[in-house]
Amino acid sequence: MKTKRCTACGGDIQIYYDNEVRDDVYCNECEREYRIISMHPVKLQALETDYDYCFEEDEY
User: Fold this and answer.
1) Are 45 and 35 contacting, i.e. CB atoms less than 8 angstroms apart?
2) Which of 17, 26, 31, 56 has the CA that lies 20 to 30 A from 49?
3) Cα separation of 43 and 50, whole Å?
4) Distance between CA atoms of 22 and 55, rounded to whole angstroms?
5) CB 41 within 8 A of CB 52
6) What is the DSSP letter of 55?
């Protein structure tokens, strides 16, 4: 298992041996989502967490 640091809070993000590119992983502290974009070396991309952008204002 490898760990990376969360860019939002500095918490640990655990990368397990069976994770693959395009898997989603989470920060253990703030639960921010990241997507694995490379395994060697491990590189992560923060995912959008505000889901309201998918809806128009009049759709609520």
Assistant:
1) yes
2) 17
3) 22
4) 25
5) no
6) S
Q: Which domains does the chain have, with CATH numbers?
A: 2-59 (2.20.28.160)
Tens-digit pLDDT profile for residues 10-50: 999 999 999 999 999 999 999 999 999 999 999 999 998 65
Residue 50 token pair = 């505000």
- Name which of 51, 8, 58, 54 is nearest 31 in CA terms: 8
User: Which residue is listed with tokens 């759709």?
Assistant: 59
Tell me 9's DSSP state: T
CA angle 10-53-36, nearest 5°?
A: 40
Please, which pLDDT band fits residue 56 given cuts at 50, 70 and 90? low
